[in-house]
Design a protein that fits this description.
The chain is mainly alpha-helical. It has one domain. The chain is built from eight helices and four strands. Helix 6 packs across helix 8. The two termini are 18 Å apart. About 4% of the residues have low confidence.
């Protein structure tokens, strides 16, 4: 998990909300295109084109707008609160007929699976679809917490565990469980990302390793983060001792 710094909601959404009058109030169900499209794309861009929970690459067709505090626990104002909205992956599946954001990268991979209702595959659920309506603000580790990464440790074998700090272990363990972050699909993807990122690292100089670490901690020229960069950075730090002074 990686910290997400929330920005301002899209201008078009703000103007739509300002149309409220004595005969009409904005609701989540009445939010449609083009405002909802702008919202979805803004969330994706804000997150460096990664899922808010697992860190996989997302596009609009492979993600959806997630309510951090579930809608079942929100009033209408909270449902539209930009600070409560994130973009979560669709567990690897693509939705047909959905337009992409204007800044979509044609090289971004789109999974071969193409299902209308990915949530029907119960054994493949993770992230928002796994979390569903569960939420405990005293337990759940949110990607909006500045220190959220400190609750977890990733390993080169794809596993995700809790940190060694006892006070945080319960929250980390429950979050991993509730989001399904150790499902086989995510482990496999993390292994592939870590192995690809660390190929040849044993032959790299200390300076090159530091540059590698810094590179995975920032956006590229297109405003994207590397998929599973939180896992890669964790392995670089904990298994290779890189970045401890950063």
């Amino acid at each position: 998990m990686r910290f997400i710094r929330k920005g301002l909601e899209p201008e078009r959404v703000r103007l739509w909300k300002n149309l409220e009058n004595e005969n009409w109030s904005p609701t989540w169900n009445s939010l449609q295109a083009p405002e909802k499209t702008d919202l979805h794309c803004a969330l994706i861009q804000e997150q460096g084109h990664l899922c808010c929970y697992c860190g996989s690459r997302i596009r609009r067709s492979t993600s959806h707008v997630e309510h951090l505090r579930p809608q079942s626990l929100c009033n209408e104002q909270q449902k539209l609160d930009y600070k409560n909205l994130l973009a979560s992956c669709n567990c690897g599946y693509s939705q047909r007929g959905m337009s992409e954001c204007e800044d979509v990268d044609p090289e971004d991979s789109v999974p071969e699976e193409d299902l209308s209702h990915p949530v029907d595959l119960a054994d493949a659920l993770h992230c928002a679809y796994k979390k569903a309506d569960w939420y405990d603000e005293n337990v759940f580790v949110s990607p909006l917490e500045a220190d959220c990464a400190s609750f977890f440790r990733y390993w080169s074998d794809g596993n995700l565990t809790v940190s060694s700090d006892p006070p945080t272990q319960h929250r980390g363990a429950e979050t991993i469980k509730r989001l399904g972050l150790n499902c086989q699909r995510l482990k496999k993807l993390r292994i592939e990302a870590i192995e690809g990122a660390l190929e040849g690292i044993e032959y790299s100089s200390g300076e090159d390793r530091d540059k590698l670490f810094q590179g995975f901690n920032k956006l590229d020229a297109t405003g994207r983060l590397t998929p599973f960069c939180a896992a890669i950075v964790s392995v670089l730090r904990e298994e290779f001792g890189i970045g401890h002074d950063t």
